[in-house]
Design goal:
alpha+beta; Beta-Lactamase; Rossmann fold; five-stranded antiparallel sheet; 21 helices; disordered N terminus; disordered C terminus
């Protein structure tokens, strides 16, 4: 500040050339002080304010008139700092020494409204002729400190966030890595470094991804790359740079990793490495288990197909011979012989029903049983079902009743399967109802819920409530054991439940010991598009059970020539007897080659074709017959013991017109033959 004093003195002196005057120098100095952006305050040797520039007025909220003449300490120094200020001021006057003169320092100051704020202060001492004056240059550093504080806070926040991020990354069970926009490593956690132990020395900040994997390939870290290194690296780089895929990778220690990489907002790549070794091991075990399950299912299907074929073949002979004996195809029978034949036939049909139930249950469990829904006449289905058990009921002198409410006229269902449900329930009622009892069907409609309730009831032995959960399990008999009273395989109720559920409904039971049972089958009755009715194996078997005492069959005046292709001699004999009793002329071909010759030489009206034959089977025989233009429209009907899912479709695909499974009946044979012979086959 001695420079200021010198300038002032120089400005006060007169120049010899008269260019500058003292008044002009003081005016220039005043203009400089008043135009300063910092506050400039001068005080006398008593600490009273002598000058107070406009910047000081703006900074402190006092006008110059209010400030001049007042003690600066009481005006702009905070109360807690005034005593120190006064002591320093006094020491400076007495000794001429001060710790603040000529130095830049930061202190707290106070405005007119009492608010404190930080300032940067520089104090200069001016020696005048008769007095001492001090000048304070004050700069408000509030904004600077605010910015600095915000920067420090932001830095602290960033450091905290980074620590939190690193802590979180390290806490991950999975490997984590981040590459920047230049594909250089930014950060990875210890888990990531542990996973890639073979190349851990390469995992430093700034390392290029490509360089890391190339060296990893050289070190044998990736078994899948062996022998195709460049192709493997190219594929890995492509997947990495696309950053939108999930891949699985095996590393040299045998572990499997799931690699997921995604692009960040700034163009970097973030990646995760998940150890899926245990999952992979479980997956492999599951694949093995599924393969074994598929093998077991295939073996089961093959076993069922084989057993079905092997059982149906002799059953065809048993039931066919019984029917032939009963209708007098051989010779007239005595009453006792006729009853015995009926019993043989009933036993055969019981065994056939068991086979059909097993196959149907197998189809349901495999999802291979299709429903052919249509609007069914409720009363017709119920009466047909009752008719099928009427003979067995009459033997026990049981009273059969049917009550169909006026509103329950139609139901949307597969009529064949609905009849199967009712027959199974009615058969149980007959079995478990004592002689002289009652059974029947009640049908009601719940219009509010659009459903039809079929209730099959009886006055039989009843069931304890504790046994209800076991009723619908397959192969379960409530009176199990060697000494049980009632026969059966325990399939009927299980099949009932499955068929009801396939219709979208269900079944429940109401019963108690000694008071009979009520089985309620609930079926939804929503309108929907349904397919036409097609004959299937069960329908054929049930229709066959009705042939005894059925309608009269018309015997053609001009014998129809039937070619029967059958390699089982007994079945051929039985079927020929049944066809002969209908007035048909029958030629037997024992194999496919004989069938081809008879078709050409004898010109039959229709062919009944066995399928599973030695040498050339029935499918190939049919294809060869169809290859001859002269026999393109010859009716060919499969008559086979094959009755598994898909057998019908295979026969039709080979060129056959219809499919019948053994055992069949005289009535079914008649109806099928007449449908083709009477009306012919219309080619498409």
């Amino acid at each position: 500040m001695s420079q200021i004093s010198s300038v002032s003195e120089e400005m006060s002196q007169s120049d010899t050339d008269g260019v500058q005057r003292p008044a002009q120098g003081e005016s220039l100095l005043r203009q400089i002080i008043e135009s300063s952006l910092d506050a400039v305050i001068s005080v006398d040797d008593r600490g009273r304010i002598a000058t107070f520039n406009p910047a000081a007025e703006d900074m402190y909220g006092f006008s110059a008139n209010e400030a001049v003449g007042r003690e600066m300490a009481k005006l702009i120094i905070p109360p807690n700092l005034r005593s120190a200020h006064d002591a320093g001021f006094k020491r400076c006057l007495e000794t001429g020494k001060s710790r603040i003169l000529g130095k830049r320092m930061q202190i707290r100051s106070i405005r007119s409204d009492g608010t404190e704020f930080p300032v940067e202060l520089t104090v200069a001492k001016i020696n005048e002729a008769n007095a001492v004056r001090f000048v304070a240059f004050i700069h408000d550093v509030s904004e600077r400190q605010r910015i600095r504080s915000e920067l420090e806070k932001a830095k602290a926040d960033a450091e905290w966030a980074e620590r939190q991020l690193r802590t979180a990354i390290e806490a991950l069970d999975d490997g984590f890595v981040l590459y920047d926009t230049n594909d250089r490593l930014v950060i990875c956690n210890e888990r990531y470094r542990e996973i890639y132990g073979t190349s851990v020395d390469l995992l430093h900040v700034g390392a290029k991804f490509e360089a890391i994997i190339r060296e990893g390939v050289k070190r044998g870290q990736y078994p899948d790359a062996e022998g195709r290194e460049e192709a493997w690296i190219a594929g890995r780089l492509k997947a990495h740079r696309s950053a939108n895929s999930v891949i699985e990778q095996q590393i040299d220690d045998g572990r499997w990793l799931r690699i997921s990489e995604r692009r960040t907002a700034d163009g970097g790549i973030v990646g995760f490495r998940v150890d899926i070794s245990k999952l992979k091991e479980t997956q492999l075990r599951l694949e093995d288990a599924n393969a074994e399950l598929a093998r077991a299912s295939r073996l089961k299907d093959e076993f069922l197909a084989s057993m079905s074929h092997e059982l149906r073949t002799p059953l065809h002979a048993i039931i066919g011979l019984s029917e032939a004996l009963r209708i007098g195809a051989f010779e007239a029978l005595t009453e006792e012989q006729s009853e015995s034949v009926c019993q043989i036939e009933d036993s055969g049909r019981h065994l056939l029903k068991l086979i059909n139930d097993i196959l149907d249950l197998s189809k349901v469990e495999a999802g291979q049983l299709d429903l052919r829904k249509r609007k069914c006449e409720v009363e017709v289905v119920c009466r047909e079902s009752l008719r099928l058990v009427r003979e067995a009921a009459q033997r026990k002198d049981l009273d059969i009743q049917l009550d169909v409410s006026s509103t329950a006229r139609v139901v949307l269902a597969d009529p064949l399967r609905l009849k199967q449900i009712l027959v199974n329930l009615l058969s149980n009622s007959v079995k478990f109802t004592r002689a002289g009892g009652q059974l029947g069907i009640d049908v009601t409609t719940d219009r509010a819920e659009e459903r039809v309730n079929f209730t099959v009831w009886d006055t039989g032995i009843g069931i304890a409530e504790v046994d209800f959960p076991r009723l619908f399990r397959p192969f379960v008999q409530l009176d199990g054991g060697l000494a049980r009273k009632h026969s059966g395989a325990g399939l009927g109720l299980s099949l009932v439940r499955r068929l009801a559920e396939m219709h979208g409904g269900g079944v429940r039971v109401e019963s108690s010991p000694g008071r009979g049972s009520r089985f309620i089958v609930v079926l939804p009755n929503h309108a929907e598009t349904v397919s036409g009715d097609e004959r299937d194996d069960y329908g054929a078997a049930e229709d066959a059970s009705n042939s005894r005492g059925g309608r009269h069959l018309l015997i053609p005046a001009c014998p129809t020539h039937v070619l029967l292709v059958e390699d089982n001699q007994l079945n051929a004999t039985v079927t020929k007897r049944l066809l002969g009793s209908l007035g048909y002329r029958v030629t037997i071909a024992a194999d496919g080659w004989s069938a081809l010759r008879h078709v050409v030489e004898d010109h039959p009206n229709i062919v009944l074709m066995d399928v599973q034959m030695s040498g050339m089977d029935g499918l190939e025989t049919t294809r060869r017959i169809r290859a001859n233009p002269q026999s393109e429209t010859l009716p060919i009907v499969a008559l086979t013991a094959l009755a598994m899912p898909g057998d019908r479709q295979r026969c039709l695909a080979a060129g056959m017109n219809e499919y019948l499974s053994k055992p069949t009946s005289r009535k079914i044979l008649h109806d099928v033959i007449e449908s083709f012979v009477s009306f012919g086959v219309v080619s498409e």
